[in-house]
Amino acid sequence: MAAFHPLAASRVRISPLLPAAAMAGTVGAASYVHHHRRRFCAIVATAAASPVPAAAATEFDFQAYMGERAAAVNRALDASIPADEPPAALHEAMRYALLAGGKRVRPALCLAACAVVGGREAWAMPAAAAVEMVHTMSLVHDDLPCMDDDDLRRGKPTCHVVYGEPIAVLTGDALLSLSFHHMARFDSYPPDIDVDKHPARVVRAIGELARCIGSEGLVAGQVVDLEMTGSTETVPLDRLEYIHLHKTAALLEASVVIGAILGGGSDEQIERLRKYARSIGLLFQVVDDILDVTKSSEELGKTAGKDLASDKTTYPKLLGLEKSREFAEKLLSDAREQLSGFDQEKAAPLLHLANYIAYRQN
């Protein structure tokens, strides 16, 4: 299987031979000047109301931070899709899927990465909304009968159960398209951006997002996951890693990296944050696999034991629960290490997000 090339030299490796604890052309600047006095869109207005916390990591109020960002992102998402304009059925389904809840981890990562390199969160809010649109698209499509065939998501009936399969497919398509439109719009950004540098950053960020969700990222992981599901072949650990580095970690990686790009981070900062994101992305899946076999459907808000019932290969299946937990701790340690070179007050949200991913209960 080909390596996930952007970080081929720094992929998280797992070896079954080692102890589990050791495993491991831009838009012209003139156009932006022309639009410099344009009216703020709702996204920027909501972002501006949520300043970056200044408390030290030991005093950081993670619950308040996540609540503020989730509220701002939810308002941005609500403003992004018309409630009554035709085609009404499609827009209703898009809003149902997008506003059905969720922890908004990916948008929070995007905003925090922008801030840690010295940017303002308003610069990254369009991208934060976009990654949540992409994430929701992946959930809508993943739940379809031709994929995982699930009828519960975020504690509610899945999109295809409520609106039917054809509308669910089109809902995912429309959300994906909207995500890129959202990031590319002139009026998505505030007037304090660097009119000389920001257009190139937007183009770079869009390219990063597209790569991480296409045939080199999320979709690749989904394809290999489908190929392995129910297979009589014993799935090796490196193949399982490939699936989850692409299917789950890739979008978390994109969330962090595009936030850092839009915040004006240096190439060195962006790559450190990419490695951080790669670790927490794989961590997210390891924890997800653990929760699938240790929690109820009511606790998770989705069908528990689904992976076991469909004979999917998971970390607990290959390593056992205890070694899976040890591997999760190693990934968390790797993520923390990548943040050590940043201002610790600014890095507090990213540090606590990594801890949250490691110790979450649903």
UniProtKB/TrEMBL annotation:
One of its GO terms (biological process) is isoprenoid biosynthetic process. PROSITE patterns: POLYPRENYL_SYNTHASE_1 (PS00723), POLYPRENYL_SYNTHASE_2 (PS00444). Pathway: Isoprenoid biosynthesis. Its cofactor is Mg(2+). It comes from the Eukaryota. The keyword Ion transport does not apply. Residues 318-345 form a coiled coil. The keyword Magnesium applies. Keywords: Coiled coil, Isoprene biosynthesis, Magnesium, Metal-binding, Transferase. GO terms for cellular component: cytoplasm. One of its GO terms (molecular function) is metal ion binding. InterPro entries: Isoprenoid_synthase_dom_sf, Polyprenyl_synt, Polyprenyl_synt_CS, Prenyl_diphosphate_synthase. Belongs to the FPP/GGPP synthase family. This is Geranylgeranyl pyrophosphate synthase.
